[in-house]
Amino acid sequence: MRRTPPARLRRARQRSGGFSLIEVVIAMGILAFGLLTLALMQLHALTQGSAGRHTHDAAAIGRSYVEQVNRLPWTTLTPQVGLGWQAPAWAGVPDDDVTVDAPDGSNTLEHAYTIAWRVTAIGASTCLRDVEVRVSWAEEDHTANKQVVLATRRYDVGGASC
């Protein structure tokens, strides 16, 4: 005589054959959400990588100008009281608009930067000057220009009143 298994065991055997349609739809929804999130993160990483490269380029340009300022004769560093930021105007200065080529070497424009500088006297001293170099640029999807400001302080070594 053959025994039939209880009803709950028969149902368990029938279910173990695969997934229901609802389970597959829920799994596909979770997978789609995860892939969409991953794609958005990748786009954000590309944008931030580009912005980081522009900031790095601006800092490198600014460092170059600060190094040039450190080699300038003292007479070029006259304080510009009330004039604020101005285009660099010393002899042999490169243009105040700098363009950087794309990193792939194709000689296509990657980005454009604008350079300005400001010289201020420190206190009543005639021997000490603050020199600031500002590099600014427009970033995609930002309304305000971004900028990097680098500064140096110069002392008139060997000056008559120093």
Give a verbal description of the structure:
The longest helix is centred in the first third of the chain and has 50 residues. The chain is built from two helices and four strands; from the N terminus they run ααββββ. The chain is an alpha+beta fold. It has one domain. Strand 2 and strand 3 form a beta hairpin. The termini are far apart. The model has no long low-confidence stretch (mean pLDDT 82). Strands 1-2-3-4 form a four-stranded antiparallel β-sheet, with helices on one face. Helices cover 36% and strands 23% of the residues.
Low-confidence stretches: none
How far the N terminus sits from the C terminus, by CA atoms, comes to 118 Å
Structural class: alpha+beta
The largest sheet, given as strand count, sense and whether it forms a barrel, is: 4 strands, antiparallel
Total domains:
1
Topology, number of strands:
4
How many helix segments? 2
- Lateral arrangement of strands in the main beta sheet: 1-2-3-4
Order of helices and strands: HHEEEE
The 3D shape can be described as rod-shaped
Estimate what percentage of residues fall within beta strands: 15-25%
Whole-number radius of gyration?
A: 32 Å
Summed over residues and divided by their number, the pLDDT gives a mean of: 82
Portion in helices? 25-40%
**Multimerization status:** single chain
Characteristics:
alpha+beta; 4-stranded antiparallel sheet; 2 helices; 36% helix
